[in-house]
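Database export, one record per block. Field names are fixed; values are copied verbatim from the stored entry.
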Amino acid sequence: MLLDRFLNDAIEVDVDALSDGKEVLIGGIMEHIEQAGVHSGDSACSLPPYSLSKALQDEMRRQTVAMARALNVVGLMNVQFAIKGDDVYVLEVNPRASRTVPFVSKASGRPLAKIAARCMTGRSLKEQGAEHEVVPPYYAVKEAVFPFRKFPGVDPQLGPEMKSTGEVMGVAETFGEAFLKAQYAASVKLPKRGTAFISVRNHEHPDVAQIARYLNDLGFKMIATKGTAASIEAAGLPVTRVNKVAEGRPHIVDMIKNHEVQFIVNVVEDKRAIKDSASIRTAALAHNVTYYTTLAGAEAACLGMKDRGDITVHDLQSLHQRSR
């Protein structure tokens, strides 16, 4: 008998590590931007983490080292954690290379696959000069690239099944600029102004005010469905109520098709709501409107738009020199 436990609104974290059989090296800690439940291959992530405390990161390091030693790992290992409040949950442990290894290696300047392969031939981490973790003094953001534009009518809702077909990376001194660069690289345009539509799950109404404040400060006009609008109004922010598709016309899909909306935050949970909002997502995709299906993703986008300015270009060689 298998018993599953579900965590709502947890933060997922990937940790890549490698071991020579005695010592364990942490390759990198990556905080997912989308909430746990979205496939790790489809979620954007940040190295180093942008919102997790040092204490939580140290606890994940401790647990990763303990598991690597208990499992007698020689070579690479990947651990997926979920953070709920101050609790750390282990989702799975894979004693193998993960798809995140190339990203971590490029971000940190340390060739993890090469070091791990040499460990498997009997060379220790000490012999290779790889005894200490490299934590970059800048942010590297990985973003997934999706093929949705090639398939008209497909629902781009993210979930536990992987849908992405590639990855890109943005690097900058701040998390916001790094995320902005990653969006540009993934062909996602973050608008400079316009109208933002917001509709979130009932239990997230108290948290939507922060997103609304960001958008208001950035100069966006806001429209929202009834429940979400009430929460935004309660925070003292201007918002206009708009109909859901089922509430009659004119509704939000009409506005998207008429090019009246430039930014969408649409977070749904139950099967009926996901089905009802599918027309919003497909209309946004068809009319090239930027949309986010998690509050975390929307907040990251707002931080990116906030840090929009003169984009700084970095070469990897100089960045890697700073990481040593």
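Remark 1: The chain has a mean pLDDT of 88.
Remark 2: The longest helix spans residues 54-70.
End of record.
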